[in-house]
Amino acid sequence: MSEEIDTSKRHFLTVATVVVGSVGVVMAAVPFVSSMEPSARAKSLGGPVDIDISKIEPGGMIKAKWRGKPAWVVQRPQTALNELPKNDALLRDPDSDEPQQPAYAKNEWRSIKPELFVVIGICTHLGCSPLYVPQPGDPSVGPTWPGGFFCPCHGSKYDLAGRVFKNVPAPLNLPVPRYYYASDQVIRIGEDPKGSKSTWTEPLVW
């Protein structure tokens, strides 16, 4: 006598096997998909950063970190601002023609307010972090030093507006990030001023 095949039971078992297998694949894939999403820390590193400038003094510097890079705010005294034009003939890009800053910082001071300079502290040669050496004639740099930023790794020099000097390895001025004054005491780095129509794209390599 021939055996009868229960096709309905076979169909049920086939469907159940496929469903269970699919669930297993999805569950196994969840950790991999999750690992591809940016972590909360990574997201925060890409967001804007607020810097409290209420206690900064003339000649002083406040350091922060934005996108994993050193962000500096320097309070330049009026005497230092008066000296900036005297450096022009010594500089590679005195008028900041290279797009190392947003349009609202393309001026004599490379800043929104003359006295407060916001800059990314990364040398444009090989990515070292320069030293802040504001004192003119500082012996660590030389008697003709006007004050500014000095990278001891390979000798690149920038004035107090972050403009690079001629005859040094660094090819570009120090980069100025997007920023605005969230209040009289807070600078927000990573966003343009309200109402700004800037189309500037930040340098890919800082």
Keywords summarizing the entry:
206 residues; alpha+beta; Rieske Iron-sulfur Protein; three-stranded antiparallel sheet; 3 helices; 20% strand; globular; disordered N terminus
CATH class of the largest domain: Mainly Beta
From the alpha carbons, calculate the radius of gyration and give it in angstroms: 28 Å
CATH architecture of the largest domain: 3-layer Sandwich
Task: Give the percentage of residues in beta strands.
Answer: 15-25%
How far apart the termini lie comes to 84 Å
The spatial strand order of the largest sheet comes to: 1-9-8
List the secondary-structure elements in sequence, H or E. Answer: HHEEEHEEEEEE
β-strand number = 9
Number of helical segments with 4 or more residues: 3
| Tally of separate domains | 2
* Mean pLDDT across all amino acids: 83
Shape: globular
Could you describe the largest sheet, including whether it forms a barrel? 3 strands, antiparallel
The CATH topology assignment of the largest domain is Rieske Iron-sulfur Protein
Low-confidence stretches: 1-5, 22-40
Summarize the structure.
With 206 residues, the chain is α+β, with helices and mostly antiparallel strands.
What does the secondary structure layout of this molecule look like, with pairings?
Layout (H helix, E strand, L loop, with lengths): L6 H30 L3 H7 L2 E4 L8 E6 L2 E7 L2 H6 L32 E5 L10 E3 L14 E4 L4 E4 L19 E5 L2 E4 L17
Antiparallel strand pairs: 1-9, 2-3, 3-4, 5-6, 6-7, 8-9
